[in-house]
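Structure ticket #2291
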Amino acid sequence: MPKSRQESRPKSKDIKGQKLPYPARQSDMKQQPDSDLSNYKPAGKLKGKVAIITGADSGIGRAVAIAFAMEGAAVAITYNKNDGDAKTTRKMVEDKGGKCLVLRSDVRDPKACRAAVKRTVKEFGGLNILVNNAHFQMAQKKFEDLTEEQFRLTFETNIFGYFYMVKAALPHLTKGDAIVNTGSIVGLSGNPMLIDYTATKGAVHAFTKSLALNLGERGIRVNCVVPGPIWTPNIPGTMPIEEVEHFGHEVALARPGQPEELAPAYVLLASSDGSYMTGALVEVTGGRLSSG
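Resolution: structure written out below.
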């Protein structure tokens, strides 16, 4: 029998070292992430819904945008700098028959967040799903090399940005709508080179749980996908080359995850299939333990 797509995906031993300038473009990666949703079988789970996804020019955000569109949602994607990757995401969504609004926006700016939501509502007539996915990370081997400027940038992007987007989106969300945040397994386990990033992801996890409690009476669900090592442009763009080489070797499946393998978790949490899920941290890690 031929190998399944999962069996044929690159193992960690097959991942070669590559270093890209930040912000890295997915189009420049020698080993391209699997984010085209070619294995995905939609079932109309988001038909008639409108979603806005931050940080969706590439990687996880791109895969989520495509999956949502395949499930019937109109999607707006925000990104910060990589115009080419964002245009590719839009084309991939449209090639699946979906509608995609592309918005260049900085989540660190509350005015920009409000403008992105306003434009989405104007374009598509409402808003049902917010996916907070935009983030910043930059590895530093020595704590002394972690500057105040980087620490502030990481928090402003990874937690303040989520706060600003929720504030902007909430007036448009009603019972049955959903917020899905992107956390990280390192927010539970820690990482010696990503101290500021892990701190923000721990904050995202707590933010998710508390916001879920706050919005429960309104019937608005708030959950968080917790990825393990996922092969995205952020890896060659922010990690030392020796960490890129054989990336994902520490997990049980002995390989990094691909963006399209995360997308179904976002569909679950955004759709009525997850109607009794709120305040959840859904780990998609390939067997990376939160304590290790």
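Closing remark: Strands lie at 50-53, 74-79, 100-104, 129-132, 178-182, 221-227, 281-284.
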